[in-house]
């Protein structure tokens, strides 16, 4: 941190320094602030006074460390504390006021015993002890200019303004109660300009009474007590002419200045410096010669008088045996005469600024430097330092004094600080209309900022702006707009333009003009962005400049009052933009129309973002399209991306931490950095790459640094600006603090950024390192390659990495791009079919098998890869394992299916999945499985993942009940879940599976399970209740009573089962959704109970699932729900359109934050859209309609920006290069495909959207550097094959078509539906074979249970029913049962005939009736039930299940169509438990 503590007062005693407690303390006054420093950049404390008067003088006591500071009328004494702990602070101990109101304090001086001499219109001695006060006072004839106590307190030397006499007050005896002095005078030939005593205040040091004085005649006089019995206390010992002490050849001529600056190095200080030099001197001949000369001088024990002028000349003289009565001719001797000592004096300064005072002191510890504090009255203090051996070289190098620090600033409170676009120039303005122009300089001399110019504007200045280049400044005051030349110390006004009366400027912005580099445009605005536009033009030599009023700017018309904020453009940007915020939280971005053809130009509504934040207090937008928003409490910060409308950061602070202001900056590569300013601290946030995983935990922003000024000042931060390179400039009161760009090494290490050293790193360098382009082997890049179907690229990357790691040793350099040439080696062909991805790939590509995956994972576990922290390395290992495990299914599934298999395997390998019971597969994978045509394989692989024992929590985790489209297979899977839920525990409680069996309408199976539930307290009551006929209203009412009773006991799932018994599907689903918060279970029950066309499922999707998707921003879920509803147009539109506008739902602010989160912008949406858009659907089905060209263009570019922000620049480039739009005249996918095939052309390029729709034409296909890895969509039209006699059996006919096809002898082949859709179970020998009209009919010829050919065929509301096969399944009304033999574990499917089914059903009902009659039809109530869980009605009827005929007739034999007469609810097995596995 480099402080700019403030502009020192132009007072003779505005600076003081002392060596106290082994540390150097420097104090000076600036305005009404007392600044205490311990080093060049060590600001210890700032003490601000509430008094309206400014401080005039300060003094430090070098024994006690107390500091005295005074205004003209008050004296304050501060006592140090905490110095024992290394952090001294000062607090006020005394406040004294002069006895007379007319006294004006001008000077202060400390004595040995905490005495303080105060000089003004009188002399007063104060005691600074705890019980101290005024000790002695005397009036003087002439107000005191200088007053100094001798180190031992025996003398006081005073002189008045313009006085030639120095009055010496000799103390006759020491007494705090009765002080007495005698007086003598020391005459001078001219007015005295300075005086000082020799020695230091030290009880152990005996200081002789030696006084040094200088006066206007440029002579140094030495006074000492050589005659103790004389009339005068001190006599002149020696006199040194400061003009003649220079060598003749460098004496100033007649036209030269006669300025001289003098400082004294006491003998004890010089001796200490020489001693330190001897311990570290080198053995060079030159150094030894210099050291010998220094030692020779030290043996004479002189005081050193150093004389300097403003031309860089210096002369050093020794004063030996000062005070001795016997004088020698060589007591005053020359030590050195050198040139090139730059004093940095101000040139062409005014008289009251052309003055300086000097204070010298020696270095601390082993330091051998001579330190010089020069207080220039132009408003700065410069700390110069030089080693003693270099100072006295006969011919030193130019500039032997080095600037250690430069302190300057403002006198009054700083109101505004602005910087140029490039951050190299700063303009600061204080309340007193004091304007200072600064330039950034990265040098020790300037401390980071160099004061360049002062601007004196008589009118009250409201706004200040800096032009690029930093040579010119624009000021806006209450009357005019003015242009100033700031290249000189005093800025010069170049041009001015008057402002209309009442034109109150609230903000302004400057941008480059498109007419030339020397032309600028400045916009001044008032409320509602109404303003005026001016042009600033500079001459070629920049000697002249002018202002020209261009036109008016029309105000923005808003329906509601709004907050407006201008956006500061980039350095070379010629556009102007603004942001308005409505009370509702709607943010609108406005751009200024650059057409100047009319008298007034207008603002254009560019885009808008709904933040949902009510009552926004402040917004700050950057030209990188980032927006920071503060709510009304100023404790909640949100950061938004204005291009995509996504929320990137949401953070809430404590109530006492209110945010005062915000400030943006950016790196050279466009990465944004935000400073959040609180009262006494600043937090620095930097953007991070997007983590696109749904389960990701990394935010888009990170807090890099916290800066606190609590220990520097007690005033709040008033402004904050960024400088070039990442330096941060803060102002508080009249002070400024420049914090450098360095981020500490520990923070950099925690961020995982590679470091060559443990030292800190530059802020912008750290931010750029965090937002690097991901290496090809980064797991996020590979994941996006899988999502976009570029599997061959994944194999090539991992195969190349595998080859490299085989011979890798520590220290080898690993290229982030693995030395792959995207435009050469990587691109092997224009296109690959998905099925031939492996067989026709590049021969050099090593495909990752399970064996290679294991080897590569072992290599990665033992290798530290660059830009890959441990967590991401583990994620890469999971990607390798999942790719290897899924490789053998690559040929068996389409792109949807392989994407699901690989990404699901990656999910299952996560260790935290087991710990988080609520985790599930991302919606992206669920929708991929939903659209695949190979769901049978996916079901089998998913079941294996759970060892064939899938419970409902497992089904919910993988979403299987959402993505399965065959309702028959879904019911079979649901029955497996029911069976597993029953057998999951040792107690085998039927309650666990009741909901599932009742949803399947298999109450008889549940009754059988309850019959075996011996020991269950609810067995008897439940058996009797379930035996009733719940189609009757009486028993439905009983079921409802039990359901409500269970709700009261919070047994929600069991209550839902009884709602289903009462045929209240709506209530059951509502309970599952609201009480259990299980949307998937609600959907599964609805689908299983009533199918995909039922009203409850439609209500569930429309009123529950879709609003949930909108609230959470889940576009994948919304697409699935809309597709289930048959709204394919909306299912495509939801990819890019805000979900609330489609679903018509109003979101709360919290829901808006969640729905607009940046992680919701999944690039996989675009590739799903592309596949569905280009998919060729079977005849009779509606295609997926494409988006409008405008929406599709916005969709593509949003994905490109997401890729860029995520570090996947290669994928972004490939997307822009390879994306093709459909011609507007061919909106449907099938039509576009046919046209492309007929004319052998590729779809139009992504860049064609720059043309109007009429101008867009088809262009020849161009290759992309990643095309060879793009998996073709599963819907790509297959090549036409020769006709076959079996062609009619390949494609199922749609359900809506009733046209008859020619009959075939194979038409009657039927495929009984298996319990698991993956493998059709053959009919067993004991099964009753139907009487088919062909000798081959009984062979059970298998057919796929799913009917999609390149596209899903799904039952939707308002669409056709799913096709079940070539012919109707004659056994659809029969229950397929599996008999599990515990001895051999074989599962056999039995198909019973009609007679066996009826007989079994009647026997079951007869047994149930007999059991209920034996229980005397006891009525069970809640009060009578021992467990209080089940309530049954009395008078249990003997309800026989009416078994109707289940004959099936095949309509149109040979056409593949069948009709069902009746579906029997009860099982057809010989026993209700035959199909249950134990």
Any low-confidence stretches, pLDDT <50, length ≥5?
824-841, 1227-1478
Distance between the termini: 75 Å
Strand order of the largest sheet: 38-39-40-41-45
Q: Tell the overall outline.
A: elongated
How many helix segments? Answer: 33
Number of strands: 61
Described by strand count, sense and barrel closure, the largest sheet is: 5 strands, mixed
Radius of gyration: 46 Å
The percentage helix is 10-25%
How much of the sequence is in beta strands? 25-35%
- Backbone structural class: alpha+beta
Q: Compute the average pLDDT.
A: 78
Could you describe the 3D structure shown?
Strands 38-39-40-41-45 form a five-stranded mixed β-sheet, with no helix packed on it. The protein has 1478 residues and is of the alpha+beta class. The protein contains 33 helices and 61 strands. The radius of gyration is 46 Å and the shape is elongated. Helix content is 24%, strand content 25%.
Topology:
Blueprint: E1 2-4, E2 15-20, E3 23-30, E4 33-37, E5 43-48, E6 57-60, E7 67-70, E8 75-81, E9 89-96, E10 107-110, E11 115-119, E12 122-127, E13 134-139, E14 144-149, E15 155-160, E16 165-173, E17 180-187, E18 192-197, E19 210-215, E20 219-224, E21 235-241, E22 261-265, H1 267-280, H2 285-299, E23 303-308, E24 314-319, E25 332-338, E26 356-362, E27 369-376, E28 380-387, H3 388-391, E29 402-408, E30 414-419, E31 425-430, E32 434-441, E33 448-456, E34 461-466, E35 472-477, E36 480-485, E37 492-498, E38 507-513, E39 516-525, E40 531-538, E41 545-553, E42 563-567, E43 577-581, E44 586-592, E45 600-601, E46 603-610, E47 618-621, E48 626-630, E49 636-641, E50 646-652, E51 661-666, E52 672-677, E53 681-687, E54 701-708, E55 719-722, E56 728-732, E57 735-739, E58 742-743, H4 745-750, E59 761-762, H5 763-770, H6 779-787, H7 791-806, H8 850-861, H9 870-886, H10 895-908, H11 912-915, H12 923-931, H13 935-945, H14 952-958, H15 960-963, H16 967-983, H17 991-999, H18 1003-1011, H19 1019-1026, H20 1033-1048, H21 1052-1061, ...
């Amino acid at each position: 941190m480099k402080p700019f503590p403030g502009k020192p007062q132009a007072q003779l005693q505005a600076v003081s320094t002392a060596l106290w407690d082994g540390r150097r303390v420097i104090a000076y006054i600036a305005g009404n602030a007392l600044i205490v420093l311990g080093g060049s950049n060590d600001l210890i404390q700032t003490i601000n006074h509430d008094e309206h008067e400014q401080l005039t003088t300060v003094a430090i006591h070098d024994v006690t460390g107390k500091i005295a500071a005074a205004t003209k009328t008050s004296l304050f004494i501060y006592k140090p504390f905490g110095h024992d702990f290394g952090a001294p602070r000062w607090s006020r101990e005394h406040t004294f006021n002069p006895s007379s109101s007319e006294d004006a304090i001008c000077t202060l001086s400390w004595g040995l015993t905490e005495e303080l001499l105060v000089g003004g219109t009188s002399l007063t001695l104060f005691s600074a002890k705890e019980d101290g006060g005024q000790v002695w006072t005397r009036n003087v004839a002439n107000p005191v200019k200088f007053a100094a106590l001798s180190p031992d307190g025996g003398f006081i030397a005073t002189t008045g303004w313009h006085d030639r006499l120095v009055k010496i007050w000799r103390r006759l005896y020491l007494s705090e109660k009765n002080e007495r002095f005698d007086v003598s005078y020391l005459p001078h030939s001219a007015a005295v300009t300075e005086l000082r005593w020799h020695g230091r205040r030290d009880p152990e040091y005996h200081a002789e009474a030696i006084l040094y004085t200088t006066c206007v005649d440029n002579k140094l006089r030495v006074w000492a007590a050589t005659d103790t019995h004389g009339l005068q206390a001190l006599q002149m010992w020696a006199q040194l002419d400061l003009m003649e002490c220079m060598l003749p050849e460098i004496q100033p001529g007649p036209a030269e200045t006669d300025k001289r600056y003098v400082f004294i190095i006491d003998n004890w200080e010089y001796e200490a410096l020489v001693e330190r030099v001897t311990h570290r001197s080198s053995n060079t001949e030159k150094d030894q010669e210099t050291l010998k000369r220094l030692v020779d001088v030290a043996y004479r024990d002189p005081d050193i008088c150093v004389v300097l002028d403003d031309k860089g000349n210096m002369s050093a003289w020794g004063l030996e045996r000062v005070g001795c009565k016997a004088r020698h001719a060589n007591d005053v001797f020359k030590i050195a005469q050198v040139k090139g000592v730059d004093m940095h004096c101000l040139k062409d300064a005014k008289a009251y600024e052309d003055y300086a005072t000097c204070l010298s002191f020696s270095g601390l510890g082993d330091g051998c430097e001579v330190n010089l504090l020069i207080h220039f009255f132009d408003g700065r203090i410069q700390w110069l330092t030089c080693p003693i051996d270099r100072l006295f070289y006969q011919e030193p190098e130019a500039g032997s004094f080095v600037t250690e620090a430069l302190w300057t600033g403002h006198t009054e409170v700083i109101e505004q600080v602005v910087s140029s676009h490039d951050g190299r120039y700063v303009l600061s303005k204080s309340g007193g209309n004091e304007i200072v122009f600064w330039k950034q300089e990265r040098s020790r001399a300037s401390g980071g900022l160099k004061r360049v110019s002062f601007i004196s504007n008589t009118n009250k200045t409201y706004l200040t702006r800096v032009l690029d280049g930093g040579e010119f400044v624009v000021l806006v005051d209450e009357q005019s707009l003015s242009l100033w030349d700031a290249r000189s110390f005093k800025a010069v006004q170049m041009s001015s333009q008057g402002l209309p009366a009442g034109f109150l400027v609230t903000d302004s912005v400057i941008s480059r003009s498109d007419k030339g580099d020397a032309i600028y445009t400045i916009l001044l605005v008032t409320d509602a962005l109404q303003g005026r536009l001016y042009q600033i033009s500079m001459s070629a030599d920049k000697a002249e400049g002018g202002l020209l009023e261009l036109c008016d700017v029309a105000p923005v018309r808003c329906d509601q009052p709004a907050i407006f904020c201008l956006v500061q453009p980039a350095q070379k940007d010629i556009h102007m933009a603004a942001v308005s915020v409505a009370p509702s939280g709607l943010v609108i971005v406005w751009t200024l129309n650059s057409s100047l053809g009319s008298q007034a130009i207008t603002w254009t509504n560019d885009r808008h973002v709904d933040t949902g934040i009510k009552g926004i207090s402040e917004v700050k937008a950057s030209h990188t399209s980032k927006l920071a928003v503060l709510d009304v409490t100023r404790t909640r910060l949100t950061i938004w991306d204005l291009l995509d409308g996504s929320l990137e950061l949401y953070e809430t602070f404590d109530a006492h931490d209110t945010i005062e202001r915000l400030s943006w900056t950016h790196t050279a590569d466009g990465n944004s950095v935000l400073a959040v300013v609180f009262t006494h601290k600043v937090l620095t946030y930097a953007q991070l790459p997007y983590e696109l995983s749904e389960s990701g935990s990394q935010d888009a922003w990170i807090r890099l640094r916290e800066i606190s000024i609590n220990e520097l000042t007690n005033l709040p931060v008033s402004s904050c600006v960024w400088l070039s390179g990442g330096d941060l400039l803060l102002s508080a009161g009249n002070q400024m603090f420049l914090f450098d760009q360095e981020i500490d090494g520990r923070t950099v290490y925690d961020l995982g950024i590679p470091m060559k050293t443990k030292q800190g790193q530059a802020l912008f360098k750290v931010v750029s390192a965090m937002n690097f382009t991901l290496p090809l082997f980064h797991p996020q890049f590979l994941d996006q390659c899988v999502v976009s179907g570029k599997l061959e690229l994944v194999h090539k990357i991992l195969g190349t990495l595998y080859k490299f790691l085989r011979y890798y040793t520590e220290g080898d350099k690993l290229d982030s791009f693995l030395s792959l040439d995207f435009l050469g080696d990587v691109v092997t062909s224009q296109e690959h079919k998905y099925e031939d991805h492996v067989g026709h790939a590049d021969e050099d590509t090593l495909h990752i098998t399970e064996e290679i995956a294991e080897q590569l994972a072992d290599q990665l576990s033992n290798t530290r890869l660059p830009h890959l922290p441990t967590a991401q390395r583990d994620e890469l290992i999971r990607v390798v394992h999942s790719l290897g495990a899924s490789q053998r299914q690559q040929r068996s599934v389409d792109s949807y299916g392989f994407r699901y298999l690989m990404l699901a395997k990656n999910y299952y390998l996560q260790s935290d999945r087991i710990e988080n019971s609520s985790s599930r597969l991302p919606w992206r994978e669920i929708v991929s499985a939903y659209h695949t045509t190979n769901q049978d394989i996916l079901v089998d692989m998913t079941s294996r993942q759970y060892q064939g024992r899938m419970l409902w929590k497992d089904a919910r985790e993988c979403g299987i009940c959402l993505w399965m489209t065959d309702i028959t297979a879904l019911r079979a899977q649901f029955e497996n879940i029911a069976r597993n839920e029953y057998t999951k525990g040792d107690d085998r409680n039927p309650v666990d599976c009741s909901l599932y069996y009742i949803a399947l309408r298999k109450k008889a199976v549940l009754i059988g399970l309850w019959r075996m539930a011996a020991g269950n307290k609810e067995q008897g009551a439940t058996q009797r209740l379930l035996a009733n006929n719940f189609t009757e209203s009486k028993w439905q009412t009983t079921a409802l009573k039990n359901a409500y009773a269970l709700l009261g006991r919070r047994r929600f799932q069991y209550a839902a089962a009884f709602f289903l018994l009462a045929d209240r599907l709506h209530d059951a689903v509502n309970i599952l959704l609201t009480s259990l918060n299980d949307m998937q279970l609600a959907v599964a029950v609805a689908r299983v109970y009533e199918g995909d066309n039922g009203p409850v499922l439609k209500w569930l999707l429309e009123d529950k699932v879709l609003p949930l998707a909108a609230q959470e921003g889940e576009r994948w879920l919304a697409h699935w729900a809309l597709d289930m509803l048959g709204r394919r147009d909306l299912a495509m539109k939801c990819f890019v359109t805000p979900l609330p506008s489609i679903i018509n739902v109003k979101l709360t602010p919290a829901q808006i934050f969640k729905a607009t989160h940046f992680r919701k912008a999944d690039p996989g949406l675009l590739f799903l859209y592309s596949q569905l858009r280009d998919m060729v659907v079977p005849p009779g089905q509606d295609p997926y309609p494409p988006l409008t060209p405008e929406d599709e263009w916005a969709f593509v570019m949003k994905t490109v920006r997401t890729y860029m922000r995520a570090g996947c620049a290669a994928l972004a480039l490939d997307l822009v290069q390879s994306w093709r739009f459909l011609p507007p005249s061919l909106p449907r996918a099938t039509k576009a495909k046919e046209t492309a095939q007929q004319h052998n052309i590729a779809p139009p390029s992504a860049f064609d959207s720059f043309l109007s729709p009429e101008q867009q034409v088809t262009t020849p296909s161009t290759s992309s550097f990643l095309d060879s890895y793009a998996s073709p969509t599963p819907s790509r039209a297959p090549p036409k094959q020769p006709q076959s006699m079996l062609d009619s059996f390949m494609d199922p006919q749609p359900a809506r078509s009733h046209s008859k096809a020619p009959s075939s002898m194979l038409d009657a082949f039927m495929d009984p539906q298996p319990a698991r859709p993956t493998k059709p179970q053959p009919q067993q020998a004991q099964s009753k074979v139907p009487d088919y009209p062909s000798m081959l009919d009984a062979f059970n010829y298998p057919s796929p249970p799913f009917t999609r050919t390149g596209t899903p065929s799904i039952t939707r509301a308002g669409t056709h029913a799913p096709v079940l096969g070539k012919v109707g399944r004659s056994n659809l009304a029969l229950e397929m049962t599996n008999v599990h033999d515990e001895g051999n574990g074989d599962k056999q499917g039995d198909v019973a005939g009609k007679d066996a089914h009826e007989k079994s059903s009647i026997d079951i009902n007869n047994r149930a009736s007999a059991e209920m009659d034996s229980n005397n039809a006891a009525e069970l109530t809640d009060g009578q039930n021992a467990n209080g869980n089940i309530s049954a009605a009395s008078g249990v009827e003997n309800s026989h299940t009416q078994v109707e005929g289940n004959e099936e007739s095949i309509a149109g034999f040979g056409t593949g169509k069948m009709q069902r007469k009746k579906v029997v609810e009860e099982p057809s097995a010989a026993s209700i438990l035959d199909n249950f596995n134990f």
